Amino acid sequence: MYRLLVVDDEEIITNSLYEVFHQWMPEKLDVCRAYSGKEALNWMSRTRIDIVLTDIRMPGMSGLELTESIRALWPRCRIIFLTGYSDFDYAYQAIQMPNVRYLLKTEGFDKVMEVVKEVIHEIESGNRMNEWLMQSRVQIEALEWMEQGEYFRQFVADSSLLGQDKEAMLSDFRTLNIGLDPKLPVLLALGRVAYSAGKAYAEKKNSHRSVRLIWNSFMDEHVRSIGVLDKHGDLLWMLQPRPENPSGDRLVLYLEGTLELIQEACLDSLGLAVSFTISGFPCRWEDVTPQYERLRRLQQLKMGDGIPMILKDQVDSSQASHCKEGVETSHKAGVLEAHLEAGREGEFMSELEQLSEFVLNGDDHHQHAAQAYYSIALVLYAKLTRLGLQDPTGERGKLLDLEGHDSMKEAFRYLRRTAEDIFDFKRMDERGKTAHVIDRVCQYIEEHLDQDITLVHLAERYFFNPSYLSRLFKQERGINLSEYIEKCRIRRAKELLKEGDLKVRDVAPLVGYDAAHSFTRFFKKATGLTPQEYRDHLVK
């Protein structure tokens, strides 16, 4: 799915273009809108944008100035300038920019839609070219990848020692053709491929290779990276920006948006769901080991079952505490996380029973018991939140309230019952899980119709790749997400108009429309009547 952002300071133009494109190809195009350059940059900071349709002359920030900022964040983004001015200087500047089109507003909606369609075709053609280039690299990279993997598996095991000698690292990097700089900080990304049961080793190996090649086809132009298999069979990448491209926070934002494209390509061309856990900040090479361990813990804590996700570690490793977790309860909680994530119910329950016995019968009863309880409760709470489950009694707050239990023994029994419910849910078939997730999305939509609900917002809230959520919703409900939102808004608008107490202009914001005229146009298009005509018809 591609993302189109419409930008114009004239509200009527922005809303009209938004409505046209919103209805045009909802299965392929997710449409956003902004009324200023500043608001457009806010969208850019939240999600990847593929096409921007913008006016050139706007107060505060012109379209040309906006384009420079877009280039810094999303180099692949295509720009279409739409203006009422046939000013030669503006047109000339626009034509000089790569991947930019120039249109006059007088050319009409049909011409604008035609150009957007051409741009989408160009993007798709470029992606296919990436696939051809990807296939030609397979043989050359195989042996090199094995050697690099062995080196970095050792490095990740003890970066505090191996990361200190920069000259030795530089020599190793040259020998192994690792295109990174040991003197600059590095960003980590951990990828997990969701395999169906019974997948053979050779198939997994080929899948890993294909995922890496897709990664390279999207990343190589703007990022230097190396990808290897870690000791757990997950893909680990180490990244640095190229000198002329995004760095720092911009690199993280660029990475998040590009990973979404990589997820889509893996799903479409390989049939593989790939999730990523990434560093929120670059770290020193000496700190790679603790940063990697943080990503693994975050992955274990929040990864869903075969759902493409992008998780970000928000802790700066340079400021994180490196103290040891030298207590037994903390270690056991980490083991329980791994068993819960992997679906190993027997091992989880056995470890939980042992930990319960240990803390309940220990000398320092209350201190150890409270620490152990909250360590486990946080693991279960995070998993419940990720799966979208209420806790069994509908009192999720009780999970994080030790004082709410009659006794310590009863509190640990409650943990066990909660874990059993989670494992019961994990045993549900995929159809049941999908239905549960989509039901929660629908419930949220119906309860927040007065807000500007977008695909990007819903994806952020439920930790989904936006394109995957769109596809999942269509698969489950049979209509596009945008259509469902419109149906809910129409239904709620009819209910409010039927009550008769509110004026039409007061109904508009309650169903997500700031301007009454936009609401009227939307309502008439859906029902054939204006809101007032609909209300008058009810009275007759």
Automatic annotation (TrEMBL):
Q: Which residues cross the membrane?
A: none
Matches recorded under SMART domains: HTH_ARAC, REC
Indicate whether Ribosomal protein appears among the record's keywords.
no
Q: Which InterPro entries match?
A: CheY-like_superfamily, Homeodomain-like_sf, HTH_AraC, Sig_transdc_resp-reg_receiver, Tscrpt_reg_AraC-type_HTH
SUPFAM superfamilies the record matches: CheY-like (SSF52172), Homeodomain-like (SSF46689)
Keywords (A to Z) from UniProt: DNA-binding, Phosphoprotein, Transcription, Transcription regulation
The record's CDD domains line, in alphabetical order, gives: REC_YesN-like (cd17536)
- Modification 4-aspartylphosphate, positions: D55
Molecular function GO terms recorded: DNA binding
Q: Which Pfam families match?
A: HTH_18, Response_reg
Q: Which residues form the Response regulatory domain?
A: 3-120
HTH araC/xylS-type domain ranges (all copies): 439-537
Q: By its UniProt entry, which PANTHER family does this protein fall under?
A: ARAC-FAMILY TRANSCRIPTIONAL REGULATOR (PTHR43280), HTH-TYPE TRANSCRIPTIONAL REGULATOR EXSA (PTHR43280:SF2)
UniProt-recorded name of the protein:
DNA-binding response regulator
